[in-house]
Fold:
Amino acid sequence: MLGIASGKMTMETMPQHDHTNVNRYLNFGCDKECTGTDSVRAHRQTRALELMKSVSRYVGKDEIIDITTALLTISSDSKAIETVISNLPKREHHDSNSNTGQTTVNAPTGK
Structure:
């Protein structure tokens, strides 16, 4: 993001590893059990806002506009969101098994 702010790179010239790292940051905390396309997008945009706030300490007002544009573009990318949804791990549920006292993962719940 600082490279974009300084004019040294654009979204198009951003190295793939940087783009991947931004996406990893934006995706952190998502899981399949509680998300759909809209909630993944909202989660990614919330994380983008956090990143914008972090970076804003190091750049001026003009640069933050470029950073905001880049982060909103990345966080709202529908192809990236579809990839996130298809690759997210399932949330593990740790329930105590009353018969054995052992913890089970993804145990069925009674209805």
Remarks:
- Residues 101-111 have pLDDT under 50 and may be disordered.
- The chain is about 55% helix and 5% strand.
- The first helix runs from residue 2 to 5.
